[in-house]
Amino acid sequence: MLAGLLLAFGAAATTGVASVLQAVAARQAGRGRAGRAGRAGCAADAGQIGRLVVSPLYIGGTALDGLGFLCIVAALRWLPLFLVQCAAASSIGVTALVGRRVLATRMPRRDLVALLALGTGLVLLAAGAKPEAATAVDRSAQWLLVIAAAPVIAGGAALARVKGARAGGALAAAAGLAFAGTGVASRILSNAHSVGDVLDAPATYALAAFGVGGMVFFAASLQRVPVTIATAALFGVETIAASAVGLLILGDSTRHGFKALTAIGFVITLGCALALALSEADAERSGLVAGPATGLAGVDG
User: What does the pLDDT look like over 53-63, one tens digit per residue?
Assistant: First the structure.
């Protein structure tokens, strides 16, 4: 169990730093758009996202995300989904600490309190985890996971065409759903015994579809909201959604006597994640942030 926890928290460190690198890349892409204000809105947004995902900083962040993902996949061989997701979600704290230094971001005190409360909720969830292997999932059920990727990707694509901070929060949530799908697929694939089994499993296709969608939606959200807010929304939704599937379908369970504590952790985590994701508009009106993220200037306007 200790090796799994170390891998999960290693994923937290790498993805936390990755989020900051991606935010810096998004800021630079936003500035680049300011000089091309005369272009058509949707075409400009699409071009901006295209420039963002191929920029060196964003590619570096994506590489760290990939390393974190490998750590998560390895951890899932020993630990239940909701424990690994909770440990990985602590990257919100890494992002906040590094982001404040690199991006000079400022957060209202209530958001800092919510971030601390979010951490408390994650600790409660982790305390109730019971280490065990995932329940085997047959091929027909795995194909249902592939089908489930379609509405998530379609919804995220529709949100990407909407401007504004609220759309950015929703995009981050869509990315969270997509990455929850990658977590579920990874947990299913943790039962594979060979590379051939992995390549033959329908869950592998779901993993690819959810993974690409999640990266694109998160990139788009970073152009509309601060990195800490986007990351909180992403990991809040991802943790809740993936943990629920793990508990209900994949055979994950809590320690004896910890069900109530785990439920309290779920409520705290979800409530604080939503509060952080939706606070951007109030923060912008009060002048605590300068547009999206101390931000990615020019994206909304």
Answer: 778 888 888 89
CA dist 272 and 17 (Å) reads 22
Query: Whats the size of the chain, residue-wise?
Result: 301
In whole angstroms, give the CA distance from residue 32 to residue 17.
23
Confidence of residue 119 (pLDDT cuts 50, 70, 90): confident
Q: Determine contact, residues 230/221, Cβ cutoff 8 Å.
A: yes
Its pTM surpasses 0.85: no
Helix (H, G, I), strand (E, B), or coil: what is residue 108?
A: coil
Q: 224: Cβ–Cβ under 8 A, 6 or more apart, which residues?
A: 163, 164, 165, 167, 168, 169, 171, 292, 296, 299, 300
Which DSSP string do the residues of 189-243 spell out, in sequence order? HTT--SHHHHHH-HHHHHHHHHHHHHHHHHHHHHTTS-HHHHHHHHHHHHHHHHH
Q: How many other CB atoms are there within 10 angstroms of residue 264's CB atom?
A: 15
Tell me which DSSP letter residue 134 carries.
P
**How many angstroms from the chain centroid is the CA of residue 289?**
22
